[in-house]
Structure formats: C-alpha cells, structure tokens
Amino acid sequence: MSIKVVVIGAGPAGYPAALTAAKLGAQVTVVEKAHLGGVCLNSGCIPSKSLLDAAHRFDVIKNISSLCEEGSADAAQTVLQHLSWKKIQTRQQAVTNKLTLGINALFRQAKINLITAIASFKDTNTLIVKTEQEEKEICFDYAIICTGSTAFVPPPFDKIKEHIYDNSNIFTLPQLPQTLTIVGGGVIGCEFATLMSSLGVKVSVIEMQNRLLPTLDEGLSRVIETNLRKRGVTLLLGKKAIDARVENERKILTLEDGTHIESEVILAAIGRSCDLTELKAENAGLQWDRKGLKNVNPQTMQITENIYAAGDVTGLSLLAHAATRQAAVAAGNICGKPTTYNNDLVPNAVYTSPELASVGLGKQQAQEKGLEIKTYKYFMLANGRSLTMDAAEGFVEVIADKNSDKILGAVMAAPNASEIISSITVALQAGLTVEQLKNVIFPHPTVCESIGDALAK
Ligand SMILES: Cc1cc2nc3c(=O)[nH]c(=O)nc-3n(C[C@H](O)[C@H](O)[C@H](O)COP(=O)(O)OP(=O)(O)OC[C@H]3O[C@@H](n4cnc5c(N)ncnc54)[C@H](O)[C@@H]3O)c2cc1C
Q: What pTM, to 2 d.p., does this model score?
C-alpha cells in the first residue's frame, strides 16, 4: 500500500512537493483554496517579471534615438504615448495562464488528486476540506504545509487599506497613475520603482533604513540608489511614515519630520506575513507566529512525526526557489529518499536595472562572522559585453576565505546577474577554491567572464 500524502497549497512549494511525492510512489492529494501556482505565478514572481520586461522594452525605445537619424525622438515619443497598460496586463495574465495550465497537466499525468477548497486540520491525521457546497474529511499519513504568506500592511497604512495597494494586488491597478509612492525600499519596492518609472510614472520611495535593500550588501544598495535617482525616482531614505489618510481621492502620508507626501496611488511594499488561523494549525499541535511555523527542522523540513512544511510558511526564506527546494526535501524525506536543505546556498536576485544578485556570504557578513577574507572585485565598466549593451553600471565581487582559499560567496550588480549568480552557487555547492574557479573557461564576450576577470586580478 502506498503512503497517503496531503499537500496544502499549490504554490512553488506545494506543486513540486506533490509532484516529487507522486514520483516517489505516494498517493497524493493537493488542497488549494485559490489558484494553482500560488503567489509566485499569480501575483508575485512571474507577473512582476512580465511587467519588468514590458517596461524594459519602453526603456529601449526611449534610448533608440542615439542610433537613429534626427527626428526619431519624436517617433519614440509617439510610441510611448501609445503605451497600453491594459495590454501589458493582458500579456502578463497570458503568461500566468500558460504556466498554470502546465501545472494542471503535470498533476493529471502524475495522477494527483487536486481539490479546490480551504483546508483545516481536525487532528494530526485528518484534514477538513471545505468548499461552498460541502465539507469533507481526508485522512493522511503525512501532510506537507505549503500555505505561503500574504501581504503585510501594518499601521498606519492598515487604516486606509481599502484605498492603497499592497505587494499582492498592485497587479490589478486599473490604470497607470501619474504619481506613485512606494512605502518600503526592499526587493519588491525597488522592482516596482524601476518598472513604474520606465512606464512614465513619477515615483517616490520611502524607506525607514538609511539605504535601499537594507538586507543586502551595501554595494548593491549604492548601485540601485544611483540608478533610480537617474530615472528621476525620489528616494526618501531614513524616513518613516507615521500617518496615512485619504483626501479627495489623494493619498497623503505624513513623515516623522512633519512633511507630507501626496500621490495618486500608494503601494505598501512592507513585507509578508503568515496567518495559519484558517488552517487551524493548533489542532495538529503546531505553533506559529507572523513569521511562520515554529520548530521546522531547517534541514529536513519536518515539524512533527508526520507533518512537514515548505515555502514562505517555514519562515526560512521568502523566495520561490527556496520554497521549491524545501518542497523536494520534505517530499523526499517522507517518501524514503532522504535529502537536506541548506538555507546558506539560496541565491538572491533583484530584477532592477542593473539586476542585482548575491549568494553565500557578502563581505560584511563574512567579517561579522570573524572570518579572514580576501575579495576580488571587477567593475562592469571594463567588461566588453556590458559596454556593448550600454549597461556597464555595477560590479562583481567574489569573497573567499583567506586561509583555505574556499569561495564563500559573491555579490553582483550586472546585466543578467540573476542568471550569472548560478556559476557561484555551483562553485559554493561544490566547495570550490578560488584557484579552481580561476581555471574555468568563460565564453567571450560575456558578462559572466567578469567573474574570471575578477579572480585573475
Ligand atoms: C510581488 C512579488 C514578487 C516576487 N518576486 C519573486 C521573485 O522574483 N523571485 C522569488 O524567488 N520570489 C519572489 N516572490 C516571493 C515568492 O512569490 C514566494 O516566496 C513564493 O510564492 C512562496 O511560495 P509558497 O508555495 O510558499 O507560497 P504561495 O506562493 O503563497 O502559495 C501558497 C498557496 O497556499 C494556498 N493556501 C493557503 N492557505 C490555504 C488553506 N488553508 N487551504 C488551501 N490552500 C491554502 C494559497 O491559496 C496559495 O496558493 C515575490 C513575491 C511577491 C509578492
């Protein structure tokens, strides 16, 4: 008899968890209350990257006149005047639909039982699934909780919640505003500042800390601050909004220093939070808070004898690729193919202009750990491929242990940094030294060869 595994949620944690468990011989049921693909496909990674790609095409048009005969600036301006937010949104939805259909097909092939319903625990072996029509019980041997997170909208923004957008529903904006205030200079805030400014919106970003992307390497903050300022984005760093109100459709924020910021639309990009009230996690003996489930083993993803978790709900990382790896680990450990997750090897990517990425330890983090390090930095200004793309902002920096020569991590701000960072992730996973990575032949001309050039210095 095959084991019965129930997966709650079908985001980038839930659907790979289900597919892995089915592949390893389990009888799998997935309970999803909304859409296949979760936040990632429907209101996160994929929609935001589709919008960023559209915005980038308009940036290219804006700069095309340097390659054209005189008079072309007017033609570019005409194209910009015909920008259709509706068509940009339609394309974004079409991409999501294609990917969602793909998951559906994979589920059918793997004979996964998909139930569209709200799941809650009755006890440690029983789930209640509730639709508008009926309520039924499902017994399971193992459960994998993949319920993700939702937008966090703290005071004072919560009191005008109905009038502002958050990091999940910003994609439903009916039209582009003339002015947008983004509260929060984290990853989502910076990505939206980039794309909205490319689409001609006048953007301001308010960030409490004294730099954008405060959880990432300082060098990356500097690059993105310079780029956003060049685009005309107003950065209000080290500023905190203490009041929010709506007056005649205008949204007004009051900062701690008494100044007021007025705009047509506010995007609260402040963070994410978990709420397991609906899941009745306590009926399965589980504890949680806003950051997620407690007592998740960060290597095996196990919480109790028969309950595992993966994705945002674990509180380990708020990234889709981390969710997917955790899911494979949870399903593997349940179905007799033990494996472990390593949170230190999760790469970060920020899809701004230039893209930013990091993996492993940055310079400051390594120094905070008391490690003796050596660093290898290369500026994109000297990289041929970046120059051919008119995109030579940024740098690549590799960090290594001074004594063992082992690569500890890297940070980069460069074209396609989200792709290039994988070379370093592989090096970290394989435990390579600087000397070994130096022997790798990178194709020329590429952005990636800047890693080799950095190490050769
Ligand atoms: C704007 C934005 C951009 C982002 N961009 C990126 C990016 O570029 N790269 C990246 O790596 N990450 C990105 N993220 C983060 C990424 O989307 C999340 O880390 C990822 O979706 C988490 O996956 P998950 O499966 O844990 O949860 P989710 O994707 O949140 O899925 C959870 C699913 O569980 C369902 N569910 C919840 N409770 C129940 C219940 N009781 N019963 C049944 N179903 C339930 C929900 O309906 C949902 O479909 C972005 C997020 C946002 C908001």
A: 0.97
